Amino acid sequence: AEKKSKERFMLRKTGNLSSKIEKIAAAIEDFQKSIELDPRDMRVKIDLCDVLIDTGRLKEANKGRKIYRK
Predict the structure, then answer these.
(1) pTM of the full structure
(2) What CA–CA distance (Å, rounded) separates 26 from 49?
C-alpha cells in the first residue's frame, strides 16, 4: 500500500511539472495513472481538470468533472 501511495504521489508531482513546462500529453497521462491507483484522490482529479480547461478542452474537463465526482 505504501509503494502504491508513493507512486501515486510521484505521478501527481510529475503531472504538475509536465503541465508547467507545457508537456500536456505527459501531464494528462500521469494524472490519469494516478487516478487509476486511487480513484478517491480529488486533488489529482482537480489537477487533471485544470489542465484540460487551461488547454481549451472544456468538453473533456466537464465530462471528467462528472465522472470524477464519484
Answers:
(1) 0.85
(2) 14
